[in-house]
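ARCHIVE CARD
SHELF: 3
SLOT: left
DATA:
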Amino acid sequence: MSSSLHHTLWHGADYNPEQWLETPQVWEDDLRLMNAAHMSSATIGIFSWTMLEPREGEFDFSWMERVFETLAQNGQKIVLATPSGAKPHWMARQYPEIRRVVPERGRQAQQARHNHCPTSPVYRAKVAQINGELARRFGKHEALLAWHLSNEYSGECGCDLCFGAFRDWLRKRYDNDLDKLNRLYWSRFWSHSYSDWDEIDFIDKGVHALGLDWRRFMTHQTTDFMLHELAALRPHSKAPATTNMMGDFTGLDYAAMAPHLDFISWDAYPQWGKGGTGDDDIQTACWSAFHHDFFRALKRQPFWLMECSPGQTNWRDVSKLKAPGVHRLSAWQTVAHGGDAVMYFQWRQSRGSSEKFHAAVVSHEGSEKTRMFGEIAQLGAELEALGEVAGSQTEAPIALVYDFENLWAIANEQGPRNTNKSTQKTALDFYAPLWKGGYGVDVVDSTVDFSSYKLVVAPMLYMLKPQVAERLTEFVRAGGTLVTTYWSGLADEHDLCFLGGFPGPLREVLGLWVEETDTLHAHQTNRIQVGDSQLGLGGEFEARDYCDLVHPESARVLATYACDFYAGRAALTVNDFGAGQAYYVASRNESSFQSEFLTALVHKLELKPAIEADLPTGVVAQKRVRQGREWVWVLNFCGQTQSWTTREEGFEKFEKGEWHALQSGQQHTLPSSGVAILRRSK
């Protein structure tokens, strides 16, 4: 990661001064207000193509040159975006082949944004031209902090160009052997075998491996398009580059894109206040933390929050305001999980068009007098004062596997359960107890190296890509602890089921085989009875949705089903394997099971939380470290004032711009949405 990126905690926003060319007073106000809000950066140019090239081949960079100079003189650094996310009308009319073809095989009209064909040679040439012009003019400017490649890459195109490229990609993937593709696609089923590569010209949903490969191809093609953008910049600029990814979006495999970026950034829009209770905001905070840990783990280095809303959005069915203090709380949560930047969409509210009612640092009222501006300015001052945190790392002894290709495969498969598969909810259910306990977690793709972790949690690992089972087995053999669940180890990377009994190549390390999986209707439940003394678990827990019928081989039974014809059969097992252990959770259980089970497990493994403290429900701690110094954030998400104490010595607490000694055992009050920031040298 470039040293220029992590010498401070960046505070910035998407800035669109080209919308205010006719009102120079607004530009002057912006400069003053940016300093009042402690803004250290501004992101410009994201959707500016028509202002940079109003007609084909006619370029006008004069307004952007003014922006660079005025921001630089005002003390802000600049994140410069390439404008490929929204093509000009003149281009779409002159070159209709650059417009996407939707699955129904119709070409999209020129509208909205994010609707270009990623394969089109014409569009690639136009993007390379505008990017090259930007890089030549601004690539070495002293104010340039980073490149922002396009905006929220997404979507797919089904045009002839894309399908031609897809067939070329398939030829390479399958060694130009159509018989091999047919075998791995199991395409004799329903007589779907291909006799010629050109027959692959639409996505047949009955051939699951084809759908998987199409998604893989779209990730490949989007990544290739992104690298094409970057290639146009690099002859003229070495500034680090990123693209803004999105939280719940799984249409592109971010793990495949991440190695090609200098640093990771993402756009977060959690629904604070959705249910009106503290419990709802705790769940929202868990969602945010999970994604922070996912994006941080993509490169295992600090990330940027490229977009968040300082208030309400404008695109949900109901867009709630952020209550006082919630924005500061969520911003410090970002930093606590490894973020080195908090940035907004947007700086100033637009007067018209789609996002005119989306919140901004500066509202339509236009001054610093709003509640929102005051909270942002306070946060900006705090980020400025705590720049020492930038570049520090997160110690994560735990990995939670969240693999996009596995999600695609589960979504595609037509199995015993075709509603409420709930893969993300399941991942969050296993993540939540670890987050609430203050443990460092990397949310990772299944292809990572597991050797540095103590505990790997892999819920619903349906697809086992090449070498994943072998690496998990070796991880346990070497002393690691593995937890996996029902609906794991069923299929390979081609979505071909393993023969010889599930969970396929994980059978030996788990010490069991799964004969059948019962799936329950919404009104049905089972119960599991835990009789384990080793972990200190006990009692009964409700099971729903999925119940595996397990045959333990070398595994020991820790819990059994209470109901139905499989009452008394194993519902939770552990297998001693080499120097480690592998646990199998055979049913989808109520959240309290995950909480008690994983809490007992981390205590057994003697994993250390962020801080040894008595924290009430909804108050969560996270830690970052660097060279003998650690910072801990204690964050109150529960919606009411809480008291807490620490049992550790040597901490200082940041209050009103200064550090004060924190006494062990002393009770501290944390208001609703409050944040306590601590540090200690070790």
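SLOT: right
DATA:
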Amino acid sequence: MKLRFFAVIFIFAAAAVAQPAPQNSSGKRPFTFEDMMKLKRLSEPVPSPDGKWVVFAAVDVDLEANTKISHLWIVPANGGEARRLNLTSNHEERPRFSPDGKRLIWTSKATDPTQIWMSNFTPESGGLDGQPHQVTNISTGADGAIWSPDGKNIVFVSSVYPEAKDDAENKRRDEELKKSKVKAKIFTKLLYRHWNAYTEFKRSHLFAVSADADASVEAGVSPANNPDMRLRQPPLHQEPRDLTPGDHDVPPFNLGGQDMYAISPDGQELAYTSNIDEVEATSTNNEIFIVPMAGGVPKKISTSPGNDNTPAYSPDGKHIAWRSMARAGFEADKESLVVYQRELRQSRTLAADWDRSVGSFAWTPDSKMIFFGAEDNGESPVWALPLDAKEPAIIARTHADDFVFSNDGRTLFFSRVSIQAPSEIARIEVSGTGKSVVIPVTRMNDALLSRIDMQPLEPFTFKGANNEDVQGFIIKPPGFDPAKKYPLKFLIHGGPQGAWGNSWTYRWNAELFAANGYVVVMINFHGSTGYGQKFIDSISGDWGGKPYVDLMKGLDYVEKTYPFIDKNREAALGASYGGYMANWVLGHTDRFKCIVSHDGTFNTETSYGTTEELWFMEWEFKGPPWKQRELYRKFSPHLFADKFKTPTLVVHGQLDYRLDVSQGFDLFTTLQRLKVPSKMLYFPDEGHWVLKPQNSRLWYKTVNEWVDQWCAK
């Protein structure tokens, strides 16, 4: 999953819902915030090598305790009742089976920092066998573990001081920093802070630790009762080997999704993603490297000037596939699949002329095809691409991610979402490139959702900027009555290279927005993903141009087409780029009764100097402000403050280093000085996302009260 600067950020901001309507005649009731907090948040599927089981993690939210805790679960691969796998109170996530299916590792917060734990697994019963034990004991913590295909090693991620010679030095430096009375920092280069934290001068590295010693101890064999083992086995907690030393991040920062590293089928080589040759603050040029598992000098095998990431070996070991962008300094370029022939040391782009962007992917076990997800008109179907095909074929039209095949290649497991349900695990039975039926594997949230009145997502198309087709979506409120008039929540997505569609989010949840009697409308304006690269590119250098035209024409269309919309009670809400557009709307129209602006750019020039990933602004505005002053000023909302009239709620987090909190303060100060009705919701402990459950509840309450204040009858 690529980092679409503000796209990912906006879609994962926070949602709004007020008091729900009463139960309707169907016996179902509107969705509530408390309902959403009760839903289990499933991670990616992890099938057992024998094909009988699927293990996954699921997060439970305790609203009153203000916590989120992940537990391990297991379900029969053919579907059935899921059950807890490890009955502990610890936060546990990211399970991974050993190649023979007899052991399971996971990341646990039983210790601080997190470490990798292991247990034997019994395939017959689908249960853990024996007492789980700790595999790693590194002072800087361990996460992201994978098995080598030969079962001999476990590779994991840890953030270390790149110049430290061993773990003892890392521990000493951490303790000195913690005990120091001086908290000042000295910066000599970019990137000194990122996302919601300062860098602390550490780098993420990949480490390897032997799996065999721990497995033999777990099985009851130890040097104490097997003297010969003393000569063959390393200590239980031997020092992990740093496979990627140096002053660079391996893997680079990412917001989840497919791993950015992999081990060859013979266990002898590691492929990984890193940005070594460029300054991360000004470049997106990640590259693919390979290095022997035994250690050695890394070799770069990618050649694109753009972002190369997520390497994956073909099961036969002949190829490495990865996602690649052609243009440097851009995060929303089309991601194509590149396949590298290891013996010939040559790479080629698959389906180079196909005009969609590849998401997570998986090789078929016979190494002849790659299955993947790719956004397309508000969905992310399952696609199949033979290595010699000119374009992929749609296997199933759904919204899918996190692909993994069973060992026999007959079944593809994946995560599936929709506008009406959060992530659950599903499968399809694969037969070449023919269409397949999606079959549920888990139904963790069915019982709760069966009692909720959720309306379907209805698409529409209208003529937007340049008289080009633009897609939008509408969701009606629970208990909808076409004879009534309803107020409107007009949602503006972020990115700007993002998109609305038939997908779920625990923040900016469209069903939750509709639940208290509002029609919700969402427009995929120029710049949105899933409609081809030309459509995506059209927003760069034109932030307040075509997207604004699309939004206003889309609003005109729904007002004309849907007579149940009360055009005198409309609110515009947006975050990140959506927050920018909310600020732009504030200075360009007064057709909305109120506006909600969350983490939005207010002054484009000062935003450049306070953000961390400068490549974003330099791409979107064609350079830095001192070279593109007119363009920055042309589309800066603060220069249109003399036209501000609409009541506006401003939301911002202190730890937002993507869009500095000063942007929110600047907007709120301007509104107050102009005597425009305004309010600010400030989170001292949140970044670009509102993550803490009770903070999220406050967000919902504040936003809904604001919208209702201006739009309720």
